[in-house]
Amino acid sequence: xxDDASSVFESPWGKGRPGWHIxxxxxxxxxxxxxxxxxxxxxxxxxxxxxxxxxxxEACYNTSPANIWVHTNMLTVxxxxxxxxxxxxxxxxxxxxxxxxxxxxxxxxxxVRFFMLQTHYRSTLxxxxxxLQASEKGLKRLWEAYEVLxxxxxxxxxxxxxxxxxxxTELDAKCLQLIAEFDENMNDDFNTAKVLGSMFELVxxxxxxxxxxxxxxxxxxxxxQLMQEKFKAYLEDVFGLKAATDTSxxxxxxxxxxxxxxxxxxxxKKDFAxxxxxxxxLAAAGILLKDEKGGGMSxxxx
Length: 302
Fold this sequence. Notes:
Elements: H1 3-9, H2 18-32, E1 36-42, H3 49-61, E2 66-72, E3 75-77, E4 80-81, H4 92-97, H5 109-117, E5 125-127, H6 129-151, H7 169-187, H8 192-210, H9 221-238, H10 248-268, H11 272-284, E6 287-291, E7 297-301
Parallel strand pairs: 1-2, 3-5
Antiparallel strand pairs: 3-4, 6-7
Helix pairs in contact: 2-3, 5-6, 6-8, 7-8, 7-9, 10-11
């Protein structure tokens, strides 16, 4: 707030009193206009702070300050309400660095965002190491499927036989229904948790196509394209999720490709001892190397 607004609307009672609400209204008008679209805040502010804002805005401008009011529920840590007095509150930077004593490790900003998206904004959000680590694994599984989906083509990258061209109408209808639920659930009071639930129901379909258990042509080309478009729209554009940007990822990619090339060469020479050793040593280091149909290999960090 600038000095002029502060001097005009300064309250003799201090913050939390009527003058403070007037100051908030002044800031809102200056930067957003007399009426803006969405006003957020905790549900504990609905009965007092926001009620006063509406009353003051109606008195000054004959209009409510916002079209939509979004009130979030409380944050808890291991089932206990987050508060400064209990010492169980932490800042975002402590989540990302893992420096708070209640945290077992650091969590990436994308993991924390995904964790929050899995709970409806009007439900209590409980932070725990178990929940954050489960979100870390869930995001990894969903994002890997999303990347696989983005590389798919209508014919699966191979010449489809007459048998492969048969459309599985039941599966296609199921995919279309789940895709339609993205918009339905988001329109139902921003229910991001249900949107992600519908996405996760499509992950086995995507992985089965990747593994050759389901032919790409089992679903219509238009369905595949719609799935690709909707996944991108929601994961990236609406939810703001991004792929990991750790600079070490590129180095790991290069190292893994080198090991895959060496293992492929060893298998071609029937040097199965070296091939098995590479796979077992990687597994011991937490990296799963998987032989794909057609002779290719993929890897993932467990």
